[in-house]
Amino acid sequence: MINLERKDWIRALTAHPVDLLNTLAEQLATDCEVKLTSLPQAGLGLLQLADGAFHEPYYLGEFPLSACRLELVLPDGRRAEGGAQVVADDADLARSLAILDAIVEARLPGWEMVAEQVTSGARKRSESDQRRNAILAATRVDFSMLNNTGDDDEN
Protein backbone atom coordinates (compact mmCIF):
# COMPACT_ATOMS: atom_id res chain seq x y z
CA MET A 1 0.00 0.00 0.00
CA ILE A 2 2.01 2.99 1.28
CA ASN A 3 5.73 2.69 0.66
CA LEU A 4 6.57 5.73 2.75
CA GLU A 5 7.44 6.17 6.38
CA ARG A 6 4.83 7.94 8.46
CA LYS A 7 7.05 11.02 8.78
CA ASP A 8 6.72 11.55 5.00
CA TRP A 9 2.92 11.25 4.75
CA ILE A 10 2.24 14.93 5.43
CA ARG A 11 4.67 16.08 2.73
CA ALA A 12 3.02 13.72 0.26
CA LEU A 13 -0.49 14.83 1.20
CA THR A 14 0.38 18.52 0.85
CA ALA A 15 1.08 17.95 -2.85
CA HIS A 16 -2.72 18.05 -3.23
CA PRO A 17 -5.00 21.11 -3.08
CA VAL A 18 -5.99 22.24 0.41
CA ASP A 19 -9.71 22.07 -0.42
CA LEU A 20 -9.40 18.39 -1.36
CA LEU A 21 -7.62 17.57 1.90
CA ASN A 22 -10.11 19.49 4.05
CA THR A 23 -13.08 17.86 2.30
CA LEU A 24 -11.62 14.37 2.59
CA ALA A 25 -10.85 14.82 6.28
CA GLU A 26 -14.33 16.14 7.03
CA GLN A 27 -15.99 13.28 5.10
CA LEU A 28 -13.99 10.58 6.86
CA ALA A 29 -14.35 12.08 10.33
CA THR A 30 -18.13 12.62 10.25
CA ASP A 31 -18.87 9.59 12.44
CA CYS A 32 -15.87 10.17 14.72
CA GLU A 33 -15.50 12.23 17.82
CA VAL A 34 -12.48 14.50 17.33
CA LYS A 35 -10.64 15.24 20.59
CA LEU A 36 -7.93 17.85 20.24
CA THR A 37 -4.87 16.99 22.33
CA SER A 38 -3.19 20.19 21.13
CA LEU A 39 -5.21 23.00 19.60
CA PRO A 40 -4.65 23.72 15.91
CA GLN A 41 -2.26 26.63 15.84
CA ALA A 42 -0.83 28.79 13.12
CA GLY A 43 2.23 30.88 13.79
CA LEU A 44 5.84 31.41 12.92
CA GLY A 45 8.86 29.18 13.34
CA LEU A 46 12.42 30.46 13.50
CA LEU A 47 15.16 28.95 11.37
CA GLN A 48 18.32 28.81 13.48
CA LEU A 49 21.75 28.12 11.98
CA ALA A 50 25.32 28.28 13.25
CA ASP A 51 27.78 30.63 11.61
CA GLY A 52 30.74 29.02 9.88
CA ALA A 53 33.52 30.87 11.68
CA PHE A 54 32.63 30.89 15.36
CA HIS A 55 29.80 28.32 15.32
CA GLU A 56 27.54 30.75 17.14
CA PRO A 57 23.81 30.38 16.58
CA TYR A 58 21.86 33.00 14.67
CA TYR A 59 18.36 33.19 13.25
CA LEU A 60 18.18 33.20 9.47
CA GLY A 61 14.51 34.04 9.36
CA GLU A 62 10.94 33.11 10.07
CA PHE A 63 8.57 30.76 8.28
CA PRO A 64 4.86 30.04 8.69
CA LEU A 65 4.13 26.92 10.72
CA SER A 66 0.84 25.28 11.68
CA ALA A 67 0.45 22.27 13.96
CA CYS A 68 -2.25 20.07 15.46
CA ARG A 69 -2.48 16.84 17.48
CA LEU A 70 -5.72 15.00 18.02
CA GLU A 71 -7.43 11.74 18.85
CA LEU A 72 -10.27 10.21 16.86
CA VAL A 73 -12.84 8.08 18.69
CA LEU A 74 -15.12 5.89 16.58
CA PRO A 75 -18.64 4.94 17.72
CA ASP A 76 -17.43 1.36 18.37
CA GLY A 77 -14.81 2.69 20.83
CA ARG A 78 -11.71 2.38 18.63
CA ARG A 79 -9.23 5.23 19.03
CA ALA A 80 -6.53 6.66 16.83
CA GLU A 81 -4.02 9.46 17.35
CA GLY A 82 -2.74 11.73 14.64
CA GLY A 83 -0.67 14.83 14.29
CA ALA A 84 0.67 17.20 11.70
CA GLN A 85 3.04 20.10 11.30
CA VAL A 86 2.91 21.91 8.01
CA VAL A 87 4.79 24.91 6.64
CA ALA A 88 1.68 27.01 6.06
CA ASP A 89 -0.32 29.65 7.87
CA ASP A 90 -3.44 27.46 8.03
CA ALA A 91 -4.53 25.85 11.30
CA ASP A 92 -7.51 24.18 9.58
CA LEU A 93 -5.13 22.44 7.17
CA ALA A 94 -3.04 21.18 10.09
CA ARG A 95 -6.22 19.79 11.70
CA SER A 96 -7.28 18.06 8.47
CA LEU A 97 -3.83 16.55 8.00
CA ALA A 98 -3.84 15.30 11.60
CA ILE A 99 -7.20 13.61 10.98
CA LEU A 100 -5.91 11.96 7.80
CA ASP A 101 -2.74 10.87 9.61
CA ALA A 102 -4.77 9.19 12.35
CA ILE A 103 -7.07 7.47 9.86
CA VAL A 104 -4.22 5.94 7.88
CA GLU A 105 -2.14 4.98 10.91
CA ALA A 106 -5.00 3.13 12.61
CA ARG A 107 -6.50 1.87 9.32
CA LEU A 108 -9.87 3.33 10.18
CA PRO A 109 -12.73 3.25 7.66
CA GLY A 110 -11.69 5.17 4.56
CA TRP A 111 -7.97 4.71 5.10
CA GLU A 112 -7.58 3.31 1.57
CA MET A 113 -8.71 6.65 0.07
CA VAL A 114 -6.17 8.51 2.16
CA ALA A 115 -3.47 5.97 1.28
CA GLU A 116 -4.17 6.61 -2.42
CA GLN A 117 -3.74 10.35 -1.83
CA VAL A 118 -0.48 9.73 0.02
CA THR A 119 0.82 7.52 -2.80
CA SER A 120 -0.18 9.92 -5.59
CA GLY A 121 1.17 12.90 -3.62
CA ALA A 122 4.49 11.10 -3.11
CA ARG A 123 4.64 10.49 -6.85
CA LYS A 124 3.99 14.19 -7.53
CA ARG A 125 6.67 15.21 -5.02
CA SER A 126 9.15 12.75 -6.55
CA GLU A 127 8.56 14.11 -10.06
CA SER A 128 8.94 17.66 -8.79
CA ASP A 129 12.16 16.73 -6.97
CA GLN A 130 13.56 15.12 -10.12
CA ARG A 131 12.79 18.25 -12.20
CA ARG A 132 14.36 20.43 -9.53
CA ASN A 133 17.49 18.25 -9.32
CA ALA A 134 17.83 18.35 -13.12
CA ILE A 135 17.67 22.15 -13.05
CA LEU A 136 20.24 22.30 -10.25
CA ALA A 137 22.55 19.90 -12.12
CA ALA A 138 22.29 22.03 -15.28
CA THR A 139 23.36 25.15 -13.39
CA ARG A 140 26.24 23.53 -11.50
CA VAL A 141 29.55 25.27 -12.14
CA ASP A 142 32.92 23.50 -12.10
CA PHE A 143 35.47 25.77 -10.45
CA SER A 144 38.33 23.28 -10.69
CA MET A 145 39.83 25.20 -13.62
CA LEU A 146 40.27 28.23 -11.36
CA ASN A 147 42.61 26.29 -9.11
CA ASN A 148 45.34 26.37 -11.72
CA THR A 149 48.85 26.23 -10.24
CA GLY A 150 50.40 27.96 -13.23
CA ASP A 151 51.06 31.66 -12.83
CA ASP A 152 49.99 33.69 -15.88
CA ASP A 153 51.91 36.78 -14.72
CA GLU A 154 55.32 35.15 -15.15
CA ASN A 155 57.10 35.72 -18.49
From TrEMBL:
InterPro entries: Phosphonate_metab_PhnG (IPR009609). Transmembrane segments: none annotated. Keywords: Lyase. It holds the Pfam family PhnG. GO terms for molecular function: lyase activity. It comes from the Bacteria. GO terms for biological process: organic phosphonate metabolic process; organic phosphonate transport. Signal peptide: none annotated. NCBIfam families: PhnG_redo. This is Phosphonate C-P lyase system protein PhnG.
